[in-house]
Amino acid sequence: MTEKTNCLSVYLHIPFCRKKCSYCDFPSWANRESYMNAYTEKVIGEIESFPAGRADALYIGGGTPSVMPADLLERMIDSIERHFSFSAEAEKSIEMNPGTVCADMLDMLRNHGFNRISIGMQSGDNRLLRMLGRIHTWEDTVQSVRLVRKAGFDNLNLDLMIGLPGQHLSDVRDSLGKAIGLGVTHLSCYGLIVEEGTRLCTEIANGSLELPDTDEEREMYELCRITAEENGLKQYEISNFAKNGRKCRYNWNVWNRKEYAGFGCGAAGFLNEVRYENPRLLSDYLNGKGPVTNRISPEEARFESVMLGLRLTEGISEKDFADRHGMGFEEAFGEKMAKPIREGLLLYRNGILKLTRRGMDIQNRVLVDLM
Ligand code: SF4
After folding, report:
1. Distance from the CA of 172 to the center of ligand 1, in angstroms?
2. Cα–Cα distances in Å, from 264 out to 41, 98, 121?
3. Residues contacting 293, CB < 8 A, separation 6+
4. CA gap 240, 231 in Å, rounded
């Protein structure tokens, strides 16, 4: 087994859910419990055939990792821990959904050094949760957080969604108040993306549901930003807010274009300037179909650095950029930077390139200019 010297982040994807939510196009399936054993074996095989190395972050996402039987999940975690040596201060984070959180699994995770739990609350309004096809109520979120606290976890993220059909500013205010009232150390506030082929997309297309308009959605986002900051949750990324020292390290590494290894169906990885993605279909993954790989050219790498780094409120340091790519911003982007700077969307000052507040709202526009 070859020893990698770079310190990696590790991602494990669990593609099982109790029920498919109406807006979801992630690689995740309901009623596939009979595949969980085979999936565990396949993932362990994938981990074992990967070069061993050091890691400073582990993120188990889904799907709903907490629907996995604890013994199967533990076998995959054991395999990751045998294969990667984690630093003492490594972040080990897992996603859970309300209604699927149980004390036994939390104890197992504590024993493996997990120190961060992320719960998909999405909303504090049961009417909106039903509309989204979520399996849980707001009361289930409260109960899940109680269990998480009882198991000794103090680093807790809640995910919230904005821009939902039938959602008003007052609903967002209420959900933020409820989430903050649960003592979170981290909040993620995501705007709904209506994906083709989902039930929600059909319901919007046939007029049975109506999205809030762009101005309303912007107000919701602004409310999230202000409320989070007022409660000591500092914005550090377009959709993410954290108390001091509680940024999500796994995501932070990804946005800083550090290397990561992804295991499981639909999982993505980035190693030695190659991005790969495992098959998104469970059957393809279980049948041994390999990943799709894409070698990143130096020009693409420069654009990726900016695309990811501009998500961060602190922006990108020119020194880091030059260390990675052997040139500064002006050489890399030249005239392309002038337009968004002139329009007040991009700031380039004291060796830092970052989006302005207005630029954060329309990041994609700025990226098109820089492309
Ligand atoms: S719980 Fe998450 S992954 Fe599962 S169906 Fe709902 S949105 Fe998709």
Report:
1. 20
2. 11, 23, 24
3. 274, 275, 276
4. 14
Contact 18, 99 (CB under 8 A): yes
Does ligand 1 have an atom closer than 6 angstroms to the CB of 21? yes
Q: Which numeric CATH code is attached to 298-371?
A: 1.10.10.920
Residue 121's identity, in one-letter code, is M
Distances, alpha carbon 84 to alpha carbons 40, 54, 129, in Å? 18, 5, 38
Please tell me the CATH code under which domain 3-255 is placed. 3.20.20.70
pLDDT band for 5, please (50, 70, 90 cuts). low
- Residue 2 binned pLDDT confidence (cut-offs 50, 70, 90): very low
pLDDT at 365 over 90: no
Distance (Å) from CA 140 to ligand 1 centroid: 16
- The best mutation among 13, 14, 16, 17 to test binding of ligand 1, ranked by most ligand atoms within 8 Å of the C-beta, falls on 17
Domain ranges of the chain: 3-255, 298-371
Q: How far is the CA of 27 from the centre of ligand 1 (A)?
A: 9
30 CA: nearest ligand 1 atom: 5
Q: What is the CA radius of gyration of the chain?
A: 21
Centre of ligand 1 to C-alpha 21, Å, is 5
Mean residue pLDDT of the chain comes to 95
Q: Is the CB of 67 under 6 A from ligand 1?
A: no
Predicted pLDDT at 371: 81
pLDDT band at 3 (very low <50, low <70, confident <90, very high): very low
pTM: 0.95
Average pLDDT over residues 232-237: 97
How much is the average pLDDT of 239-266?
Answer: 97
- Please state, for a pLDDT cut of 70, what percent of the chain lies above it: 99
| pLDDT higher than 80, residue 4 | no
Q: Do domains 3-255 and 298-371 have the same CATH topology?
A: no
How far apart, in whole angstroms, are the C-alpha atoms of residue 106 and residue 113? 11
Long-range contacts of 314-322 (CB under 8 A, 24+ apart): 314/236, 314/352, 314/354, 315/347, 315/352, 315/353, 315/354, 315/355, 316/352, 316/353, 316/354, 317/351, 317/352, 318/351, 318/352, 318/353, 319/351, 321/353
